[in-house]
């Protein structure tokens, strides 16, 4: 088995992915490093090139090294018996496409499978499935009803239906903000919801290789300047992420229960992280991440630490789980075509 950290990607979250890969490589120093660039090539990366990249959240990563087309890299991964540790976020890396390409080849990979990834990545569909599991979810607002909803609720929030790391958030605090929402919705689908005032929280779920599934301690988020967008997550020095969160025992139990319900309703595997707004006595569902950030500053590693689980131990167990889920007896790409 050859462990390979795959990172980068062609979407806006590739910067976060590089920071995740740095943390993954420090925990798995023996792993090979493959960088997936925006041209759909995969580069072999030297350890020092990755670790010396000082500002991953701000500066594009330049991999150097030899490269090969993306699908050729996957064929090579299958031929060489590699297991892929996914240090990727968003886009084709998290919407199920990469996972399907690996599954068709019989390549083991960490994280959820293609169907769960595709379902969770769609915020509208994920919200429906979470609601089926008894999780409290906010109402949706059709774009054509934004005026009525604003008059009723006073504040709204709009976000891309299929994106992460809080990219594209629009806080609708005045009628002037309608223009920004309508403009953004011309290029991609947007989810519009009543603004829910409360405490931001997130809760990781961990599936172990022995089959047990547990919720990790919830994290309480106190964002800089009142909003948890990309800058607050990765660039601001004043954002506070408190783990375990300062919630009552009953609220903590509700958050953990709802995170487990969402994880199971979406058929996630390995690990996930579900975001909530805690208002009054109830956590309100926002979204589930099937490939949450694993940077040194990310929320999921903080929860692992609070649970007493070492980051390297977590990764090695996820690799075992990936091996169990992958490596079928045959794959689509190894079957001979039937004769006419």
UniProtKB/TrEMBL annotation:
Keywords: ATP-binding, Cell wall biogenesis/degradation, Ligase, Nucleotide-binding. SUPFAM superfamilies: Glutathione synthetase ATP-binding domain-like (SSF56059), PreATP-grasp domain (SSF52440). GO terms for biological process: cell wall organization. Residues 127-320 form the ATP-grasp domain. The keyword Cell wall biogenesis/degradation applies. It holds the Pfam family Dala_Dala_lig_C. It is an enzyme of class 6 (ligase). GO terms for molecular function: ATP binding; D-alanine-D-alanine ligase activity; metal ion binding. Its EC number is 6.3.2.4. Belongs to the D-alanine--D-alanine ligase family. This is D-alanine--D-alanine ligase.
């Amino acid at each position: 088995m050859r462990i390979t950290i795959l990172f980068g990607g062609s979407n806006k979250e590739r910067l976060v992915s590089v920071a995740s890969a740095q943390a993954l490589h420090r925990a798995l120093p023996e792993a090979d490093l493959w960088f997936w660039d925006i041209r759909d090539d995969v580069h072999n990366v030297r350890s020092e090139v990755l670790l010396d990249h000082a500002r991953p959240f701000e500066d594009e990563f330049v991999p150097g090294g030899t490269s090969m087309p993306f699908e050729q890299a996957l064929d090579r991964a299958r031929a060489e018996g590699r297991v892929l540790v996914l240090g990727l976020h968003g886009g084709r890396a998290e919407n199920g496409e990469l996972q399907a390409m690996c599954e068709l080849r019989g390549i083991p990979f960490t994280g959820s499978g293609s169907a769960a990834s595709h379902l969770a990545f769609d915020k509208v569909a994920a919200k429906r499935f979470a609601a089926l599991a008894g999780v409290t979810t906010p109402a949706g607002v059709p774009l054509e009803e934004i005026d009525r909803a604003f008059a009723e609720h006073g504040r709204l929030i709009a976000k891309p239906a299929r994106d992460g790391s809080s990219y594209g958030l629009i806080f609708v605090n005045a009628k002037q903000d309608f223009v920004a929402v309508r403009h953004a919705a011309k290029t991609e689908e947007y989810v519009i919801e009543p603004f829910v005032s409360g405490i931001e929280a997130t809760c990781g779920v961990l599936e172990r290789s022995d089959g047990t599934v547990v919720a990790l301690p919830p994290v309480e988020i106190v964002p800089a300047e009142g909003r948890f967008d990309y800058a607050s997550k990765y660039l601001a020095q004043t954002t506070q992420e408190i783990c375990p969160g300062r919630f009552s025992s009953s609220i903590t139990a509700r958050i953990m229960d709802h995170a487990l319900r969402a994880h199971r309703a979406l058929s996630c595997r390995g690990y996930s992280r579900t975001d909530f707004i805690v208002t009054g006595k109830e956590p309100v569902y926002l979204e589930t991440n099937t490939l949450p950030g694993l940077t040194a500053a990310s929320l999921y590693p903080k929860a692992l630490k609070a649970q007493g689980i070492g980051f390297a131990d977590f990764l090695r167990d996820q690799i075992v789980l990936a091996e169990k889920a992958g490596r079928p007896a045959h794959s689509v790409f190894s079957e001979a075509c039937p004769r006419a």
